[in-house]
Amino acid sequence: MTSTPAQAAPVSSGSSAPPAWQPVAAIGVTLVLWASAFVAIRHLGHEVTPGALSLGRLLIAAVVLSALLARAPRSRLTRAEVILLVCCGVAWFGIYNIALNDSERRIDAATAAMVVQVGPILIALLAALFLGERLTGWLLLGMAIAFGGVVVIGSAMRGDGGSDLDGVLLALLAAVTYAIGVVCQKVLLRRLSGLEVTCYACWIGAVVCLPWLGDLGDVVQHGSAGTLLLIAYLGMFPTALAFLTWAFALRYTDAGKQSLTTFLVPAIAAVLAWVLLDEVPPVLAFVGGALCIVGVLVTRRKPRQS
């Protein structure tokens, strides 16, 4: 890999930050695509094994991102960056995907989404401990309100399948690995580009999922065209594109604050299911969605200067 002088120094948020609307728009794209992934994963859950689904979407994303990276500047990685990339790729791109996919086979999607939203809370705490980010009163209040909204949505949209302990524990594992991955990614983005971090992490995650290569081969041979198209969609959009827009925004935003915007994902997923699948959400889901929006807005409040 070639070293690029322009990327050798840490990003200066004051001199190189883009217009304020761009990170906000990038987060919006990410949230919509991630919400759509919950619907697609639920649809594929009983046709494709968790490992095969994870491997398929990661391989597609890795190939797409590699094609983009081949024409972009690349940095020579330090030993510390390699370690952080491995942690990010194994935790967030590998274990997270497998755990989330498997949990949605055991528990309903609303419960899974609710448990996974423990992740943003963990990210805020880890960012305060290891990245020096502030845990303000507004941040804590907004976190509580938004998580309450997620609980309301989960209660309103819980299906008849119930929740078993293994499914809940898998969703909790997904939350923990998501938190670890985001904190590692935030450190990496101080010097590396979002394209580099996302591409390398996708390949690392794909290696983690290689034990399910045989299952993926069966899906490619015997799966329907709709199944293959959905896997391709997951790879190109909720993975390749959404993780790129997430990384772009994270480069200029506190990890704790940005992660709390994902409290909106269950609400967006409910709206997408309503529009695309004609599944009308219960009234309580709208109440929960409103609480999520209020909570996220509260987290954006700045404390008074003393």
From TrEMBL:
Originating species: Nocardioides aromaticivorans
Domain of life: Bacteria
Domain annotation EamA: ranges: 30-153, 167-299
Coiled-coil regions listed in the entry: none
Family membership noted in the UniProt record: Belongs to the EamA transporter family.
Name of the protein in question: Drug/metabolite transporter (DMT)-like permease
Residues spanning the signal sequence: none
Transmembrane segments: 24-45, 51-70, 82-100, 112-131, 138-157, 169-188, 195-213, 225-248, 260-277, 283-299
InterPro entries: Alkyne_AA_exporter, EamA_dom, EmrE-like
Gene Ontology cellular-component annotations: membrane
Keyword annotations: Membrane, Transmembrane, Transmembrane helix
PANTHER family reported for this sequence: EAMA DOMAIN-CONTAINING PROTEIN (PTHR12715:SF4), TRANSPORTER, DRUG/METABOLITE EXPORTER FAMILY (PTHR12715)
